[in-house]
Design brief:
Layout: H1 3-61, E1 73-74, H2 75-83, H3 88-95, E2 99-105, E3 124-127, E4 137-148, E5 153-164
Parallel strand pairs: 1-4
Antiparallel strand pairs: 2-3, 2-5, 4-5
Length: 165
């Protein structure tokens, strides 16, 4: 009879140990699912920013405010928008907020910002301002063409598009 209480005690210990392992497995599985969900949300946010960069570049290349219609930027249009004081507030109504674009034509050895006084001897246009320390950002450089009205030529350029949060 002395063995029976010990057998009951060991069975209770087995059940307690089994319950502890099951609870630990459930908690571990919940932590894994939480980590997995956070990772997926971060990856989706990154993909959304990447898609926004590409969409912003495509929209600017096809906008008659900047381009001729053949996805070719017009230097006179770029200069008029950049120099006329059309600010980021007005452009953000069209393209949304938290972005930065600059276009640099590669037909001059030095970068010269385009304004009313420097046109047509310039090669750099900037739209909106760069945020120094954004939490997260996505940026791409796109090769584009800039039509030079004064010389009736095409110039190769680099369009730097950046979206940040």
């Amino acid at each position: 009879m002395a063995c029976e209480p010990r057998k009951g005690q060991s069975e209770i210990m087995e059940y307690i140990l089994m319950i502890v392992f099951i609870v630990a497995a459930i908690i571990g599985f919940m932590l894994f699912l939480t980590w997995w969900n956070i990772t997926q949300i971060q990856a989706q946010g990154f993909k959304d920013r990447e898609d926004r960069v590409v969409a912003l570049a495509q929209n600017m290349m096809n906008d008659y405010m900047f381009a001729n219609g053949d996805s070719v930027f017009d230097d006179a249009k770029l200069t008029s928008v950049a120099a006329a004081g059309i600010g980021c507030d007005e452009l953000s109504l069209i393209y949304g907020v938290d972005w930065y674009v600059n276009i640099t034509a590669l037909d001059m050895p030095m970068e010269r910002k385009c304004d009313w006084n420097g046109y047509p001897n310039c090669n750099y246009w900037s739209f909106c301002t760069y945020q120094e320390h954004p939490e997260s950002r996505s940026a791409y450089n796109f090769p584009v063409n800039v039509y030079r009205k004064a010389t009736n030529r095409m110039s190769l350029a680099v369009m730097h598009v950046e979206v940040y949060t």
